[in-house]
Design goal:
mainly beta; Phage tail protein beta-alpha-beta fold; Ferric Hydroxamate Uptake Protein, Chain A, domain 1; Maltoporin, Chain A; 3 domains; 22-stranded antiparallel beta barrel; 5-stranded mixed beta sheet; 6 helices; globular
Amino acid sequence: MIDRTPPTARKTGVKNNSAAAFSTTLSRLAVAGSLALISVSPSVYAQQSAVQINIQQQSLSEALLQLGQQTPLQFIYTSDLVQGYSVRPISGQMAPEEALRRLLAGTEIEYSREGNTVNLRRSVNTAQLAPVTVTGTIAEGELPVPYAGGQVASGGGLGVLGSQDVMDTPFSTTNYTSQMLEDQQARTLADVVVNESSVRMMTSTGSFSEDFQIRGFNVTSGDVGLNGLYGLTSSHRMPAALMERVEVLKGPGTLMYGISPNGSIGGNINIVTKRAGDEPLTRLTTTYESKAVLGAHLDMGRRFGTDNQWGIRFNGVYRNGKTSLDNGRQKLGLGALALDYRSPTLRWSLDTYAQRENVDSFRSQNGFRPGVSNIPAPPSGHRAIYSGADLTSRDATVASRLEYDVSDRLMVYGAAGYRYGASEQDFPSARTTNAVDAQGNFRALNAWYDAYSRNKTGEIGARMNFDTLGVKHVVSLSGSILKSEAGSFFLSAPVSQTIDSNIYNPVPLIPMTGERHSPTKASETTLSSFSLTDTLSFADGRILITGGLRQQRVKSENFNAAGGVTSSYDEDAISPLAGIVVRPFENVSVYGNFTSGLTRGGTAPVDAANAGEVFAPYKSKQYEAGVKVDWDRVITTVSVFQIDRPNSMTDPVSNIYSFDGEQRNRGLELSAVGEVMSGLRLMASATFYDAKLQQTAGSVNQGNKAHGVPKRTFNLGADWDVPWVQGLSVNARAIHTAATPYDAENTLTLPSWTRYDMGARYRTKVHGHPVTLRATVENVTNENYWLSSSTLLTVGTVAAPRTVLLSAEIEF
């Protein structure tokens, strides 16, 4: 566990006290880190009566800071005393000293007290023991502690490599915490990952699905991991209510996670589900979303048995009402249950969730007519361009994981899961000559498109650590398999029912008639792989080298409506990984990596001229280098990268989907995240792209900018605890995306856009129960703009309008 307490002396938590700040500065200069003082209360006398305590899982130093904020106690200790310790969550009514005893339980720390002041020191019988700092892999079964400010974690999972501290990772990663999800009122995964400039949404709130772009390449909703396994998340959208962490890895993660179901290479997103904490939890949250969607979320957790070995966590969500789209409605139901068992050597978990969503009028993706002179201005975000299009989706998943520590040096594990998902939707289309023109006119034809998918996945593996001639090793071995079956039913209306419409004044679609059949099997795919990795540690952990290989196999068969095989392939390849981290100073990491992956070939979309045609797997590769600096309470990262992969596109004239040449994305990423000063949290990032088409057939479009990739993106978010109003915090966020090439010919461009969000929350108590009131306004200026998408074909989606989110949360 990496200690996150600043090595220098500090006095934190006294707000608007210039004398205290000046004293702290003198202390730092005088003793250079020998003393850390936390004093967070204006009270003079310690109160023995019970107070409400709410402390999250985090480092001991951060937990003491929170305890000082919630009680009159003041703590004096040296920074090395708390190094390497983390604490489990505690909450409830208790005396301040009882809370302190719980935090120190199991440590080598004792305390003495004089009034408000609490002196911490190492126990006499252990005073001569040297502190031990563990680098690299986090303790098995433990989540990395939150970093300063609590919005992101100090580390996260990396598939077969296990959990690692961000400073020991040869990749660029961001690990969002449940605190950030709650404070930003995240509804779905999209509300979480949008906080970083390297990630952009390709679809808007209320669309058919949530698809992402990482480092300029697409990551579809079905390529999101759940507790490290692919194939278990919804292909439409994942609810935030069941998420404890969201881990984002930028760049191909094939070696760590295996091949994603839909072949995404821009990066990996992994959801870590909630578990029951040691303290009982009953939390009810009521919600409002404009136009008039009302909802409720119940979150309950309990542990029981000897040493709280057994845990159960339930999350239930229901929302219903009018959306911001014209004549739009949404009805959502979610139930998620998590069971777990833990002992000193064995960890087991079971997760299951089911959700159903009915949407009247969802946000459509729109193509633009070939040869159009300019992209028309976007209509109002309230406008339902395909008026009358409806969607129903259902998902059900069950997954289990077992880990066993054979010894202090060897851990073995196994995981398995099953998911079934289905959807029925109106599927109006306006492609090629019927697409939107410069005046916003288009011709549309209604259709039905129903689909299902059934996934079975599993993984077994082992992780072992040992030393050879002074070199430390962490070796992992794994084998995984994902079997996926997909089916569909498509029926288009007669051409005579084509309507003339306009994006600013849509004409309702002619309702579909005819016989709606059940979807038939269209494909079966098996993705299997074996991996072997080794992370070597030299020079007391200052040099870390990771190397590995993953042997992958892609086997696929495609079927016609009668069940006959129309095409198949069986391909395999070996994907290498090489990564290095050099730490010239304790707070500086210089890193680099090279990785290559085999990606499942694409399938022509349903409305392409060659619909259903399946293409062979292809390889992609990434080079990356960067520097991370931990400034005690803020981590900054600078990285450069290059990703190469075969380019897919749908020709706007012939309407044929194909692979043509190579897309090369180069980029520069800058980021800073943490707590810049007490009570002020910051998330800032910028990404600059140089994305081009290479080796195209006949040199057509050679050297052109890659469509769908902006030249630059920026994010800036701040969250501030208002010092003169206890419990009040305000936040603001700006998201900017530069102009984006729409087509491979670079004749059309989607304009740049900037979105501003604002919010506030107020924490208080009502009859002794913690209550949190939150208010958020997204797209404050009600900006209308196009979002770019190029998953299978280049289209645009109108972004959501100004949206108000309100919630009231109470804990019992």
